[in-house]
Write a structure and sequence with these properties.
binds iron/sulfur cluster, disordered C terminus, TIM Barrel, 11 helices, binds S-adenosyl-L-homocysteine, alpha/beta
């Protein structure tokens, strides 16, 4: 197995887009079907060493290992499976940064919630990741490595996977690496089963719109109007809600796809029937579905923030539906680990930064 704390600066093949892997290998791996074999080990199997590539000669493997690396994050801890089977993983990165990912089995399918940054600078006041402050961008290898590690440990086939960028960080502030990781993922997972969630970084959404093949888009709306959104998502001052919605209306969508509007439900703050009507008006026009996420409390978060009662959640969802907006409620059994996707802290020992705002 590759050790994460390597001192040599070999190029990590998981950091390269698939086309660049082929050209990086070409001078060292002949003939071309051998390149395809290496790619198969990387993309279909997700191996973390050249040693595992049993259909390559010993010399070829040693030669490749001298030039390239296949390192990805090491799982340092994992929680006991919750009632719903979900497991939270804590990974250590090469520089000691910690990130989390969540494995969520759901019948015949499995959803993996990935981190894109080791922290988050956006500073939403209801989010534990935001509370702990900014962290660095993850490399493509660190992003796709989360998938391979969990997949191997849990024995999940690529075909059964859904991937959501809803762990730590703001994917649209790490656009380039996220885009490369999507190209890599696409070798084994259809982008129809990949969702990128953003706090509404308009330039990032516009970059994503330009990609030839795009994942599903989810946007954290979280409040029915600009004033309230500014209160809990300071980023709204930079990217106003109206402009965000306008950019989402321009976003190219394939037939049958929608944009998911995530909406964290805070008791007595944004969960009334009137709020549902305002939200429905904001999202009118049919290209949005709402994913209502009951707030998950945490000691690090403001104490006024409370999860609504089940009855209030149902009332809100029904009101949205009456206004013609499709809605799903993310129901987690109690405050299970799956509920934690989207509020990962990555570090448990100490507080890194003061809360924003
Ligand atoms: N930065 C991206 C992706 C990570 S957050 C984004 O903001 O979209 C993923 C989701 O988790 C977001 O929709 C966010 O609103 C939600 N979330 C964050 N903290 C939460 C909490 N305490 N309770 C419920 N949902 C939360
Ligand atoms: Fe960052 Fe998303 Fe949390 Fe906001 S909700 S602080 S953007 S991770």
């Amino acid at each position: 197995m590759e050790r994460p704390h390597t001192t040599t600066r070999r190029v990590n093949l998981y950091d390269l887009a698939p086309g660049d892997v082929a050209s990086a290998l070409a001078p060292f791996v002949a003939p071309s079907f051998r390149i395809r074999q290496v790619q198969e080990w990387i993309y279909a199997r997700g191996v973390d060493s050249f040693e595992s590539m049993s259909n390559l000669s010993r010399e070829a493997r040693a030669d490749l290992a001298a030039r390239f690396s296949l390192a990805f994050p090491v799982a340092r801890e994992r929680t006991e499976p919750a009632h719903d089977g979900s497991v939270k993983y804590l990974f250590t990165l090469e520089d000691g940064a910690l990130i989390e990912a969540v494995y969520m089995p759901m019948g015949s399918r499995t959803t993996l919630c990935l981190s894109s940054q080791a922290g988050c600078a956006v500073g939403c006041t209801f989010c534990v990741t935001g509370f702990f402050g900014a962290g660095r961008n993850l490399t493509p290898a660190e992003i796709v490595g989360q998938i391979h590690r969990v997949r191997h440990e849990q024995g999940v086939a690529n075909e059964a996977l859904n991937v959501v960028f809803m762990g730590m960080g703001e994917p649209m502030l790490n656009f380039e690496h996220v885009a490369t990781s999507l190209e890599i993922m696409e070798q084994s997972i259809s982008l129809k089963r990949v969702t990128v969630s953003t706090a509404g970084i308009i330039p990032g959404i516009e970059e994503l719109a330009k990609l030839e093949r795009r994942p599903n888009l989810a946007v954290s709306i979280n409040a029915p109007d600009r004033e309230r959104r500014e209160e809990i998502m300071p980023i709204t001052k930079k990217y106003p809600l109206e402009e965000l919605i306008a950019s989402l209306r321009r976003f190219p969508l394939e037939t049958g796809r929608d944009i998911t509007a995530e909406y964290v439900l805070l008791a007595g703050w944004n969960d009334s029937v009137a709020d549902a009507a305002t939200l429905a008006k904001l999202l009118r026009g049919g290209r949005f579905k709402v994913n209502a996420i009951p707030f998950n409390p945490d000691p690090a978060l403001p104490s006024w923030m409370k999860r609504p009662t089940d009855a209030a959640i149902d009332r809100f969802a029904s009101a949205l539906m009456r206004h013609g907006v499709p809605v799903t409620v993310r129901r987690s059994k109690g405050n299970e680990i799956a509920a934690a996707c989207g509020q990962l802290r990555g570090r448990t020992e100490r507080r890194r930064a003061a809360p924003k705002g």
